[in-house]
């Protein structure tokens, strides 16, 4: 990394620690899967934290809980459309909680309509023993909005997901997390409770430069919503994972699914402040780029982790202060992405082009609209407008000779090349749209037919 970039990163965290009056702040930047910069500031000279110092990471914990649920889905043990009650006893209406019909996907995306918090006393500052059962976490009125209708952030929703993991794995959530995620990724300093060396949590007086220690609580059933402690070294590994996946834990395709918007931002006067949400991941659109990750806070601690897949950059920032430090992690990512933009891979020709697929490429028409079909590596196809804006999608080849849309309007739709009696391709069928080699080709089965008079001046 360039010296000028390193100084800019150090300047950003120094300003954040000073202006927010954080007792300490530690940060790291990841590029193309490896840590390329770390930095720290402290109010105690000579005692800056390092990459092995634990901080409480708050709701960044939710990203770990979501990965455990996606692992269950990929193993075929559940589907995101499954109602919770199918897998978790005691959640049906009439048994005290009334959340059994909420789907797993709705819980992951905060669209289940659940309350933001558990009933008092405030769960973040009180021991989990006060909420020994799910009914204690959910309270008498757990649902505030119709399911699936709106985004409403819910900590109890992730308690339910943690209980779901425990039910299907038959062991405590933390044990599953260690065996299936943390240990395979080498994240040995991420734990449910603090292990030395760790930072102490502080509240900073709003009107004087004084500090008050914050107590540490084991939140019990609420742990999947915000219990974890971690380090910037470990979270740098986690950032790399959230950008590219790891087959030992979760495939790149499933991690990419987590990064796709699954819920809109909250409406109203905060619409400009709240980001949309994926499956256990917050999404932030800023400076022309989309970031995926999560912010987190618990009494005495704040933090954030963001990755930009397009830039190949991720950033982590953690502080031991109850009050916020601003968008430090996002700013660190932006500094690197803009000062040292990713260098594209060299263009290379296709390794083994199929002549039959090459013949499909070129212009196609949806009615009078001109589209271009392009062949990519691995028999993949791309379809998009020849000029201007319009619908565009990438397509994955399937064993039966069709293609499935990966993104855009045609995500999940089937593209097939339809052949006539002579074996030649007469048209493309894309989710019932007929694409022809000429605009409204009369020789192709255009829905509704074409005027026998053909094209004319008037």
Please describe what this structure looks like.
This protein is of the alpha+beta class and 458 residues long. It folds into two domains: 3-339, Beta-lactamase (3-Layer(aba) Sandwich); 355-435. It has eleven helices and 18 strands. The strands form four sheets. An eight-stranded antiparallel β-sheet has the order 11-12-13-14-15-16-17-18, with no helix packed on it.
User: How would you state the average pLDDT, rounded?
Assistant: 93
What is the CATH superfamily label of the largest domain?
Answer: DD-peptidase/beta-lactamase superfamily
Count of domains:
2
- The CATH topology of the largest domain turns out to be Beta-lactamase
Give helix % range: 10-25%
The CA-CA distance between the termini, in Å, is: 64 Å
Strand count, sense and closure of the main sheet?
8 strands, antiparallel
Give a topology summary.
Blueprint: H1 3-20, E1 24-31, E2 34-42, E3 55-56, H2 61-74, H3 104-108, H4 134-138, H5 155-169, H6 173-182, E4 202-204, E5 211-213, H7 223-226, E6 229-230, H8 232-244, H9 252-258, E7 282-286, E8 289-298, E9 301-308, E10 313-319, H10 328-339, H11 355-358, E11 362-366, E12 369-375, E13 381-385, E14 393-397, E15 403-405, E16 414-419, E17 425-430, E18 433-435
Antiparallel strand pairs: 1-2, 1-10, 3-6, 4-5, 7-8, 8-9, 9-10, 11-12, 12-13, 13-14, 14-15, 15-16, 16-17, 17-18
Helix pairs in contact: 1-10, 2-5, 2-6
Protein name: Beta-lactamase family protein
Pfam families: Beta-lactamase, DUF7586
InterPro entries: AmpC-like, Beta-lactam-related, Beta-lactam/transpept-like, DUF7586
